[in-house]
Amino acid sequence: MAVAVVCGAMLAISPLVIASADYESTMGLVQKIFYYHMPSAWIFLTASIVCGVASIRYLMTGDPRHDRTALAAGELVVVFGLLTLVTGPLWARKAWGTFWIWDARTTSSLVSWMIACAYLILRRYGGPGSEKLAAALALFGMANVPFIYISVNYWRTIHPATSVVPKLPFTMGFPLWFCVITFALLFIVLLKLRVRVEEQQARVDALYLSLDER
Amino acid sequence: MIRVAWLILRKDLTVEVRSKEIVYTTLFFAVSCVLVFAFALVREGRGPEDGAAGILWIAVMFAGNLALGRTFERERQSETLRALLLAPASRPAVYVGKLLGILVLLFGAELLLVPLVALLFQARLLSHPFWLTAIMTTGTVGFAAVGTLFAAMLVRARSRDVLLPVLLYPITVPVIIAGVRGTATLLQPELDAGIIRFWFALLVTFDVVFVTLALWTFEAVMTD
After folding, report:
1. Which of A90, A181, B66, B170 could join A114 via S-S bond, C-beta 3.0 to 4.6 A?
2. In chain A, what's the furthest Cα-to-Cα distance?
3. How far apart are CA B12 and CA A210, in angstroms?
4. Measured between CA atoms, how close is B175 to chain A, in angstroms?
């Protein structure tokens, strides 16, 4: 609960923090979208890893707790992925002169986002027993990303590397890290909430079942 | 294990030789795909640059999707997949047997598709037969390895016909990229051996990783 309050407050003041940051010399105002783009991209990646790891553990143990975590993380992959994929092109229009370029990062992000969507579609419409199939899909999706990355990277890549981050001046670094922490907290809060909803759903289902048996 | 896989392959081929249903539908569908692309893209006898490589792979993937769906639909109709899984055979062997069956079908389709695309798009597909075979084989194995696993898993799922392409195409993106780029390299007037070796190595790595993963997942997923 306390985390949720802190996270909400940080999210509320984040526009002010971002507004206080210096203007980037060539891109001006548009560059500020980067303060939301990069944190959401990092959380997108984190959520994908959480989903993949939870899926593997579910496949190995069959414990439904891991499955619930995987589902919650899978939904957040779609949410944060969408944020990343919307803010990215807005920035790219100014920086690269075009909304979309098929480079390694953009392509692998798009494909992992599509795999996460396929994951949710499978969970939603696959019917009973689709949890294991979805877990296998998540596993394959995770194994897929390096291949896409390497294959597209072989053409050409123009996406800025994350190695610029430590070199940022304080006035730009502070808002960035502020947003990263905000988004990380947001991710934790949403993940916990979503897992709780699933847990309660499972408990309600179990109660109904026991009622029927009586 | 090899014997079980061989028996399953022989069973699939025998069923197919008797009905010829999947062979005919898949081949006809693949050919009509290529024709549609030819009508849409070929102008004055020539297709767009590198177009032939893309169209060849799209046709293979569409046909593969159809063949995968039908192969496992047949197993579902008379509950024979359950019988296969109940038989005292190891799960990986069952997977390998089904995979080999799909591969035979797809290689057959490719034998027809490659000359057809080369003809309709006036592409120099056949000028490097060794590399073409290498790229087509490794790419098809990668696609079929993932496809066989997903088609088998989806046998018991609802709306399986729609879900198979929805799941399969995003996962096989690396195969498409490497296959199309590799084949497009072969269309160049001068073969760049370094580039073609890179795509071939990527496809081989993909095959090894995904066949291994599929063998492990098949065991975990196909248990009730």
Report:
1. B170
2. 72
3. 45
4. 9
Say if A59 falls within a structural domain. Answer: yes
A140/B213 touch (CB, cutoff 8 Å), yes or no: yes
Q: Which residue of A115, A133, A152 is in closest CB contact with B171?
A: A115
Residue A98: the pLDDT is 83
Task: Count the domains in chain A.
Answer: 1
Parent domain of B136: 2-221
- Give the chain B residue whose CA is nearest to the CA of A111: B170
Q: Which of A98-102, A160-164, A176-180, B54-58 has the lowest mean pLDDT?
A: A160-164
Q: What is the pTM of this model?
A: 0.85
Q: To the nearest whole angstrom, how far is the Cα of A10 from the nearest Cα of chain B?
A: 36
Distance from CA of B141 to the nearest CA of A (A): 15
Q: Which of A127, A122, A182, A107 is nearest to B157 (CA)?
A: A127
- Asked if residue A9 belongs to a domain, the reply is no
What would the two tokens of residue A136 be?
């296998």
Cα–Cα distance for residue pair B173/A104, rounded to 1 Å: 13
Q: Is A22 helix (H, G, I), strand (E, B) or coil?
A: coil
Task: Work out the pLDDT band at A156, boundaries 50, 70, 90.
Answer: low
pLDDT at A116: 92
**CA distance linking residue B174 with residue B158, whole number of Å:** 27
Interface membership of A61 toward B (CB under 8 Å): no
* Whether B203 contacts chain A with CB within 8 A: no
Would you list the DSSP string of B131-160?
HHHHHHHHHHHHHHHHHHHHHHHHTTSTTH
Domain extent for A193? 33-156+173-213
Query: Does the pLDDT at position B224 exceed 90?
Result: no
> pLDDT tens across B16-69, in order?
888 888 889 999 999 999 999 988 888 877 778 888 899 999 999 999 999 999
Cβ atoms of A126 and A133 within 8 Å: the answer is yes
pLDDT in tens, B87-107: 888 888 889 999 999 999 999
Does residue A19 lie within any of the structural domains? no
